[in-house]
User: Which sequence fits this backbone?
């Protein structure tokens, strides 16, 4: 073959053949690499969510062979353990029964297991260095701490999962519509600032998105197969089992996701074909089989199906405002069965979600197109039915998120583990983009090339939040206040491995300091001594701007007669603690006040006189 013919054949393949597809994927891969490098070099931040640090420290315990135990101890968890073990007469084999199971490794009662187990596997495979490294320039800024290596590795892992979300969005959009909608939807998901923030948070959201989109794809495949003249019964049944397994796995990634079984079952009842009963039974059976062993484990450990997580519906109500329930060592649960409590919470939070969250769910512009697209009558059956599934999920997730919302959503309104609506963002992008193309097809343009100009302008407008973030001043990667890992690691290192600390950021002490840490009790007297005298000695108290910079009247004065605010005022202004308080020593060589406060029952720093970096 002549050289001219070879060149012509190659050009033809690049334009219309397999080469064209390869070129598109190469361009997308290059775009992904450039975006990731730019984002991480400009907008990276160490972990800033309590839930992310909690999952990470739990994963480390699993990877090191310590079992499903936690170093972040909630007073509510102590209450549940004590009540359960006393009821069955359990003892620890020592003179003083450890009913609270805090003198040894404390079982975790707050987290669903899948994500910590996945992170534990990651920690087994890759070289995680939990001790701060200030020698390598990548982890520090001029010799000062900047990036915590394990936080960075977990963020990279979640960003890889984000690429999986982009790929699944493309596949679903192409299945429902066409390649044009698929490519634009994938690009918008890739440039979604909210999803990139979730990737840095350490939360399980990216993994849960992979599960949810895989579940959606399986449901669409079932719907497609049942409409065939001769449905493949075996194939449909296998897909139904996969749907049940995925839903159960999602519930074991985040408990609230388990309510997705309702729209899944409803979708199969409506569109599951003649054998819909068998398909529903397959889904529910697989879901129950996946979920049951973990519920049995929780019952065996605490006498509750979901541990402390099962009380989320009661948190941040007028009975237990803010974090009061989880910080209560003796909570009064007498009135938690009152329906009015939950009606009020559903109404108050639900209205806020519908007014403020829903209209901006898929970035403002795409959300507008999605909401307007609800009025369209799509010709394709699969598109209409998928939209019904999306709307059913939206309704269920609004209710579940409203009832399960705690004070975490107030502290971080968008990036938190209670945000279920973010799981619908890829589908919302797909339907929003489909309406955009529908309107574009109806436009009369002077030249066909203007169509591409409009598409590019639309994409730029949708990706504006990301563009603004990447071109603003580079923020510090340190999530202070209140988290400064070198200081946390140092103060925790003063104590022995099994010593108990108390802090207002116990998740951070557990993760960065690798020490057992109790969440700050509701008051500095009765609740503090209920733990110190009856459960386990508290050797140190570490308070950060989380408490020191709290509201004077609301957080310090009004809560309780012996509040921590009163304690801080006495310690700072008078230079002394209450007479009977056992923690009286403060390190003189380190300046904690006025932003932070550290007290201990002995001068541990004389044994390990390290300096804060």
Assistant:
């Amino acid at each position: 073959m002549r050289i001219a013919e070879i060149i012509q054949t190659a050009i033809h393949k690049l334009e219309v053949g397999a080469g064209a597809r390869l070129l598109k994927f190469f361009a997308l891969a290059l775009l992904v690499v450039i975006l990731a490098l730019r984002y991480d070099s400009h907008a990276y931040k160490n972990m800033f969510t309590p839930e992310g640090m909690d999952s990470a420290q739990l994963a480390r315990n699993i990877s090191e062979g310590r079992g499903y135990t936690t170093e972040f101890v909630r007073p509510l968890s102590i209450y549940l353990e004590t009540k359960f073990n006393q009821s069955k007469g359990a003892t620890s084999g020592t003179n003083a029964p450890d009913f609270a199971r805090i003198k040894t490794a404390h079982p975790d009662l707050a987290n669903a297991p899948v994500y910590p187990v996945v992170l534990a596997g990651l920690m087994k495979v890759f070289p995680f260095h939990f001790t701060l490294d200030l020698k390598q320039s990548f982890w520090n800024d001029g010799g000062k701490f900047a990036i915590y290596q394990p936080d960075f590795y977990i963020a990279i892992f979640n960003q890889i999962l984000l690429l999986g979300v982009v790929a699944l969005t493309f596949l679903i959009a192409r299945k429902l519509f066409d390649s044009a909608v698929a490519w634009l939807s994938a690009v918008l998901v890739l440039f979604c600032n909210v999803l990139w923030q979730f990737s840095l948070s350490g939360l399980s959201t990216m993994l849960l998105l992979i599960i949810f989109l895989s579940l959606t794809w399986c449901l669409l495949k079932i719907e497609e197969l049942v409409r065939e003249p001769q449905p493949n019964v075996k194939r449909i049944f296998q897909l139904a089992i996969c749907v049940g397994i995925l839903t159960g796995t999602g519930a074991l990634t985040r408990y609230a996701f388990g309510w997705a079984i309702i729209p899944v079952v409803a979708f199969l009842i409506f569109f599951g074909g003649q054998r819909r009963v068998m398909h529903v039974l397959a889904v529910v059976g697989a879901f129950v089989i996946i979920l049951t062993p973990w519920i049995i484990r929780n019952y065996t450990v605490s006498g509750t199906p979901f541990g402390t997580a099962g009380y989320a519906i009661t948190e941040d109500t007028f009975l237990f405002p803010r974090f009061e329930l989880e910080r209560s060592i003796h909570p009064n649960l007498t009135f938690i069965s009152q329906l009015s409590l939950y009606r009020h919470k559903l109404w108050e939070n639900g209205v806020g979600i519908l007014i403020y969250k829903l209209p901006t769910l898929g970035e403002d512009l795409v959300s507008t197109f999605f909401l307007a697209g609800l009025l369209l009558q799509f010709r394709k059956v699969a598109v209409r039915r998928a939209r019904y599934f999306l709307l059913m999920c939206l309704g269920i997730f609004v209710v579940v998120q409203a009832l399960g919302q705690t004070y975490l959503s107030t502290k971080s309104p968008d990036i938190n583990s209670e945000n279920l609506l973010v799981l619908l963002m890829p589908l919302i992008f797909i339907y929003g983009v489909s309406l955009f193309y529908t309107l574009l097809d109806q436009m009369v343009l002077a030249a066909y090339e203007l169509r591409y100009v409009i598409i590019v302008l639309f994409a730029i407008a949708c990706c504006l939040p990301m563009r603004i973030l990447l071109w603003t001043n580079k923020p510090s990667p340190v999530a202070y206040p209140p988290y400064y890992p070198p200081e946390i690691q140092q103060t925790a290192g003063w104590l022995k491995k099994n010593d108990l600390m108390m802090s207002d950021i116990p998740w951070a002490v557990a993760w960065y300091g690798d020490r057992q840490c109790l969440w700050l009790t509701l008051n500095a007297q009765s609740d503090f001594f209920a733990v110190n005298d009856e459960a386990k000695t508290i050797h140190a108290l570490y308070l950060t701007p989380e408490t020191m910079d709290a509201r004077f009247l609301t957080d310090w004065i009004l809560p309780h007669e012996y509040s921590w605010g009163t304690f801080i005022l006495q310690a700072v202004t008078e230079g002394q603690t209450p007479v009977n308080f056992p923690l009286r020593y403060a390190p003189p060589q380190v300046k904690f006040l006025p932003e932070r406060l550290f007290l201990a029952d002995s001068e541990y720093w004389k044994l390990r006189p390290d300096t804060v970096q």
Remarks:
- Residues 149-176 form the longest helix (28 residues).
- The mean pLDDT is 89.
- The longest strand covers residues 538-543.
